[in-house]
Amino acid sequence: MDKGKTTSKKRKESDSPTQSPKSKRKLPTRSLAWNVFTRLEDDDSRCSCNYCGKTYSCNPATGGTTNLNAHMKKCKAYLDHVESGSQNVILTVGGT
Ligand SMILES: [Zn+2]
């Protein structure tokens, strides 16, 4: 009893090597400050610390994230968070 079902239409998709040259988009390295601060919705020239709630000016015209980085170094709530637990967080304050 041969079942005449030999219609195994297996389409051989030509597996052409889809090796497109990996062109990694260079995303602008966002400042670490943006892990800590959130821009205020009603005033995007200010942002608040996610950990202690303090607000700072983050207007690029007036120094940008400089004062944010400064705050990160002394924000008790943030430092506590960094020290307690997530040791994967690499603190690279400074640079620009
Ligand atoms: Zn803070």
TrEMBL record:
Residues 1-11 have a biased composition (Basic residues). Keywords: Metal-binding, Zinc, Zinc-finger. It comes from the Eukaryota. Residues 28-82 form the BED-type domain. SMART domains: ZnF_BED (SM00614). The keyword Mitochondrion does not apply. Coiled coil: none annotated. Residues 1-30 are annotated as: Disordered. This is BED-type domain-containing protein. It comes from Brassica cretica (Mustard).
